[in-house]
């Protein structure tokens, strides 16, 4: 797979290449059409979109979209093997993106996301050409009880940037981190372990102290960070991405916690690009409160819905 050519920054140094990536499958075909339509309306710099789907779904997507909207890759090309369907396995596929050398930086999209305002390449990089890092002390999920988000949306206050001097302690060496016992990978599916507390397991395993943080939705992933985690954490412990997701199924938290713990790349935090709705009820709450798409566009590039839990496809 050829990599995306690099562009030149203002100081003549090569700028990191950038692409948009979405992992999808046949059930989300209509939602992908909505995502693609929003890209055609708002992608001012024509940033390339890469889409991966199971090999069995490739013909279906080609029939719907043709060959001009995005580059289509079978999931099996990414993973090198056939994998079962399921939301956990979708995350395993995403982890393999960096190994295809698609771009230095990948903007990770879900099928149920769509853009609501124009954006350009510069929205994803600092003035010095380094990618932003999605990082927040509160979730950007709309909910009546999410007071920090509501305050932002109402224009009453902009959350102060996270204080990296307090957040970043000395980097943790990979050899000082924990590992995932094989018995843990086998016993958890047999017990009643809840999924959400496992986010903290990632933080504890990588030895990052402090409060839990948010790294989603739709983060920017740097190839160098994923390669670093593979070479310095997974390979020495004889682990793979299937092991990570079985232990704690939050791919964005694995990425974010690794970067915070190791500081293996520059860290430039910013709030997520997308506002998330996890239920139709939350959409109805927002509409009843008088929020419009234009209100959301003041702070976010787009909206992301929870396709598996909602009937509504748009706000």
Report on this model:
The chain is an alpha/beta fold and 315 residues long. Helix content is 35%, strand content 14%. The chain contains 13 helices and 12 strands. The protein has helices at 29-42, 58-65, 75-79, 87-95, 147-153, 164-167, 182-187, 198-205, 223-237, 241-247, 251-262, 280-288, 293-297; strands at 7-8, 14-15, 18-23, 49-53, 71-74, 105-110, 113-115, 133-134, 220-222, 269-270, 274-277, 302-305. A 5-stranded mixed sheet has the order 5-4-3-6-9, sandwiched between helices. The longest helix has 15 residues, at 223-237. The radius of gyration is 19 Å and the shape is globular. The relative contact order is 0.16. The model is unreliable at 1-13 (pLDDT under 50).
